[in-house]
Amino acid sequence: MKMYLGVDYYPEHWDKDMIDEDLDRIKEMGSNIIRIGEFAWHMMEIREGEFDFSFFDMVIEKAKSKNIKVMFGTPTATFPAWLAKKEPSILSEDELGNKRVFGGRRQYCFNSEVYKDYAKKIVEKLINHYKEEEQIISWQIDNEFGHEGSDMCYCNQCHKEFQKFLKNKYEEIENLNKTYGTIFWGQTYNHFDEIPIPKPTITVHNPSFKLDWARFRSHSINSFAKLQINIVNELKGKNQTVTHNLPGGFFDKAYDQNVLAEKLDFISYDNYPVWGGLKEPIEAAEIALNHDYVRGLKNKNYWIVEELMGAQGHDVIGYLPRPNQAKMWAYQAIAHGCENMLFFRWRGMTRGAEQFCYGIIDSDNKEKRKYEEVKEFMKDIKNHEKIINSKIESDIGVLYDFDNTWSWKGQNQSIKFNFTNEILRLYRPFYNLNTNIDVIDIKNDFEKYKVLALPVMQIIDENLQKRLEEFADNGGTIIFSFRAGIKDKNNNLYFGLENPGLISELAGIRIDESESLVEDIEIVAKDNKEKYKANVWRDIISPNTAEVLYKYNDKFYDDKAAITRNKYGKGQVYYIGTGVSEDVLDELYRDIIKDQAIEYIDSPKGLELYMRKYKNKKYLFINNHTDKEIEFENDMIKAYESKIKSI
Ligand code: GAL
Question: What is the pTM (predicted TM-score) of this model?
Answer without folding.
Answer: 0.98
